[in-house]
Structure formats: structure tokens, C-alpha cells
Amino acid sequence: MVGSTKIKAVVYDFGGVLLSYDGVEDKWKAMSKALGLPENAVHSESVGIEFSQWLGPDRSLFLGTLTVDDLEGGLFLQYLKQKYGDQLNDNVIVKPYTECLRGENVRIHKNMQKTVEILHKKGFKTAMLTNNMFLDKEHKETRLPCDLTHFDEVVESCLEHLMKPDARFYQLVEERLGVKPEEIVFLDDLPENIEAAEKLGWNTIFVKDIEKAIKELEKFTNVKLI
User: Fold this and answer.
1) E-only strand ranges, the chain
2) Which single residue of 2, 34, 138, 192 has CA 20 to 30 Å from 72?
3) Across the beta sheet with 203-206, what order do the strands follow?
């Protein structure tokens, strides 16, 4: 959605906007096969609403009350065992979250990352607004394997105990950047997060194709980005 007010701030989601999942799908499918489950089970179950409901409101990865270590250390397999029963090969250890967050499996959209640097140097305020998670039980390491140099603010759900699409989470960005809703353009790959931003008066770019999203961002900012 393109507005007419001059844009002063650009706010980025992380996963699906800066972080690419290209190449990780095959690893998730291999995990599913090892567990004796349908090929898309590990990916869909690890991020699905059923798993969140099974965990309950007081146990949340994105709100910081649980960590990746907690889930990969047993909770995820407990859930799968309850759902799939004897079909599950529970002698296998799988790590669906860390596969795309650490080491050689991390893929960053370089062209999108470059837009952060270009816009920041042009005087735009930049922020990341992400439903993020702690990787370790000590709550010290979060999953942001990208260059944060050119972000004025990084707002993470697990640190704030708020998450998208809660309006209060978005409003933290407005306060910290010191901008009005109509002065923001926000990039995200989930419709519910885009809808929440638009209700607050933010301009939005629904990211389905990275290069097309960058072209839209050029229109908002009047800056050549690619």
C-alpha cells in the first residue's frame, strides 16, 4: 500500500524479508523422513498453531518464556509423539529451528540487506521489528545472524514480551524512532502482520518476491536501491 506522506523510517521484518529460507526446506524434509512423518511435517508442525496451542499461553518461544533449547531439547518431540503416536520414530533428534539460524545454513537476502545500508546513509531511520526467539536456556543469544550496523533500533519480541500482530509491539518502534505512523514503511511476509500495521496507519510492503519488494521500497523512498 503506497501513501502520500513523506517517508522518514523503514521498518523490516527479519525472517522472510532479510533471512531467506532457501535450501533449508530440504533439511526439514529429511528430518521428517527420519522421524517417519510426511515430508512437510517438521516445518509445518514447528511453526504451526497446533503446537502453540499445545504449549499453552504461558509457554511461548516468541515471548521469551521458552527457548529453542527447550523446544529442541524435548518439547517438540513430546508434541509430535502425542499427535502421531507410534508412527513417530522418537529415537531421532531433530533441530528444526537451529537449522536455518546458525552456521552454514544461514542465508541472508543480500540485496535487501543492502537497502538498509543505503537508506540509513541517506538519512532514513531504520528498524527491525521481529518475532524473535532465544536460542539458549540462559536467554543470552537471539537469532539475528545478519549485519545490524545500519539499524537504529532492533525490536525483538522475546526481549519485549510482546509480538506481532499486537499493536503495542509496533508502537514501540514509533516511540523509539520518534516518527508518526504515516511516516513509516514496513516490510513483512505475513498478511496478519501487514494488516496490523495498516490498522495503525503504517505504509506497508507485503513481501512475496524480494526484488519486487525492493522496487516498491524505491517508490516509497525515491531512492535507487538496485
Assistant:
1) 9-12, 19-20, 107-108, 125-130, 153-156, 184-188, 203-206
2) 192
3) 153-156, 125-130, 9-12, 184-188, 203-206
Between CA 5 and CA 10, with CA 9 as vertex, the angle to 5 degrees is 110
* Domain span at 212: 9-18+109-221
pTM (two decimals): 0.84
Residue 4 lies inside a defined structural domain of this protein? no
Q: Are 154 and 173 in contact (CB under 8 A)?
A: no
Boundary-marking domain end, from 68, 100, 132: 100
141/94 same-domain check: no
Residues in the chain: 226
Amino acid at 39: E
Kindly state the DSSP code that residue 210 receives in the 8-state scheme.
H
Nearest-angstrom CA–CA distance, 34 and 97: 16
Instruction: Give 104-134 as a DSSP string.
Output: GG-EE-HHHHHHHHHHHHTT-EEEEEE---B
Q: Is residue 199 part of a domain?
A: yes
CA 122 to chain centre: 25
CATH number at residue 141: 3.40.50.1000
Q: What percent of the chain has pLDDT over 70?
A: 95
* pLDDT, tens digit, 9 for 90 and up, residues 106-116: 788 999 999 99
